[in-house]
Specification:
The protein has twelve helices and 15 strands. The chain has about 425 residues and is α/β, with parallel strands linked by helices. The strands form two sheets. The chain has a nine-stranded mixed sheet with strand order 9-8-10-11-7-12-13-14-15, sandwiched between helices. A six-stranded antiparallel sheet has the order 3-2-1-6-5-4, covered by helices on one side. Helix 1 packs across helix 3 and helix 2 packs across helix 3. The longest helix has 17 residues. The protein is elongated. The N and C termini lie far apart (about 55 Å).
Length: about 425
């Protein structure tokens, strides 16, 4: 530890001792009052030290105050709109994600104790707690940002804090088109699929934008329908008149009171939903979700982790078996083939860009194997001078099976060179002229 860090740590400890929180009733103070109260004592401490005339005094004062009564280094990072993820690996190693790329920042905490205090104050806003008896916690901040904390003895490098920031502006499908996440033809097709009540699973790895796309698709649900959303930590931002948002609950300190995603899915079936939106299927709730899709709740949406549409089907089979039901594999595959209509596959490239790399339709079963047909694909062609992956979105020449069941007036118009639109029986799209 260098001299500056040691000095900051000494000031931090002296300020805590000076405040003596056991005798100072800070619970009745507002945040500004507490800040002014602590600032007055800290200035007295600095005036008595060798740093009283230091040019860095203001920065030092702000750092100590943020750690003692604020959110420390997290405060400035949370206010930076260019940052989408904050990753703190102990007090001295802080990383952020900007525009899809991870970078280390100079920000740091003065000690493990200061980081632990910031984590405690963050969790106070959520009603959760973390300690040695309960060393892991998932929570949601008032602005919707999702936080994860894991502390020693499980975390060997010290307390680890991860914050996935919640965007201030709600993204819509046209925003994703403008960002190059998908093509206009893909967006038109997905809008049609939601309107005609196709069951859609958004698939992809961690950080590929599954929840963002799910939120955009959920926003396309007609306002006349009743929607139930179910999430582990609420992230969806639906502006819907007839909406009920449900959130799972972990166990309390006594190990009781746990309410799982599966419990909420079962309860949602008794709430007269038109559509059920599950933030993520990761266990036995997959079986209940498939049954809901198969029993009149068409147009339901969910996400799952998988690297490809074929891998997604394998994961859904495994997660269905996690429900504890002794079901034959053939029956599970029949359920999957009839419940899930479309898979939207997302990927994040090494440059940090996120794209829809495939829209795939479930085309039934044949000889006990689920059949897939690709409708759209993204084909990477190289890397430009800025290191960004380049490529083109292409149609695959397959017409979706559900198009035949639509009345003629509801079917998409063919694509012609003069006007944008949708085309499934050819090999062109609005952005590229080659087929898959």
């Amino acid at each position: 530890m260098d001299a500056a860090a040691a000095f900051a740590l000494d000031l931090h400890e002296k300020l805590i001792e000076r405040l003596d929180l056991r005798r100072t009733n800070v619970t009745r103070m507002t945040d500004p009052e507490l800040w002014v109260y602590a600032q007055r004592h800290l200035q007295q401490l600095i005036d008595q030290s060798d740093a009283r005339h230091s040019p860095d005094r203001a920065a030092l004062e702000r750092q100590i105050l943020q750690e003692v009564v604020g959110l420390g280094a997290v405060e400035d990072l949370l206010s930076d709109d260019s940052i989408s993820e904050i990753m703190i690996n102990g007090p001295y190693h802080v990383f952020v994600e900007r525009r899809g790329r991870i970078e280390k920042v100079a920000t740091r905490f003065s000690s493990v104790q200061s980081l632990a205090g910031v984590i405690e104050r963050l969790l106070q806003r959520t009603g959760r707690r973390v300690d040695e008896s309960s060393p892991m916690v998932d929570a949601r901040l008032p602005d919707g940002s999702r936080i994860n904390v894991i502390v020693p003895p499980l975390a060997l490098c010290g307390p680890a804090l991860t914050i996935r920031k919640f965007g201030k502006r709600r993204l819509r499908l046209p925003d994703l088109v403008s960002a190059g996440t998908l093509s206009p033809a893909m967006a038109d097709f997905l809008q049609l699929a939601v309107q005609v009540r196709r069951n859609i699973v958004v698939s992809g790895g961690t950080g590929t934008g599954k929840t963002t796309l799910l939120n955009c698709l959920s926003g396309l649900i007609p306002t006349a329908e009743r929607v139930i959303t179910i999430e582990d930590s609420a992230e969806l931002q639906l502006e819907h008149a007839n909406l009920v948002a449900l959130e799972a609950r972990p166990s309390n300190a006594e190990g009781a009171g746990h309410v799982s995603i599966r419990d909420l899915v079962r309860n949602a079936l008794r709430m007269r939903p038109d559509r059920i939106v599950v933030g993520e299927c990761r266990g036995g709730e997959t079986l209940d979700m498939l049954q809901a899709m198969n029993t009149g709740h068409d147009g339901s949406l969910t996400t799952a982790h998988a690297n490809s549409p074929r891998d997604l089907l394998s994961r859904l089979e495994v997660m269905t078996l996690m429900a504890g039901m002794d079901l034959p594999l053939g029956a599970i595959r029949e359920q999957l083939a009839s419940a899930v209509n479309l898979v939207v596959q997302l990927a994040r490239f090494s440059c940090g860009t996120r794209r829809v790399v495939a829209i795939t339709e479930i085309a039934g079963t044949e000889s006990g194997r689920i059949q897939l047909q690709d409708l759209f694909r993204f084909r990477a062609s190289g890397v430009d001078q800025h290191g960004v992956t380049t490529g083109a979105f292409r149609t695959c020449g397959n017409e979706p099976r559900f198009i035949e069941s639509l009345p003629p007036e509801a079917r998409p118009a063919p694509l012609c060179p003069e006007a944008p639109g949708l085309r499934f029986n050819g090999s062109t799209s609005d952005t590229a002229g080659a087929s898959c």
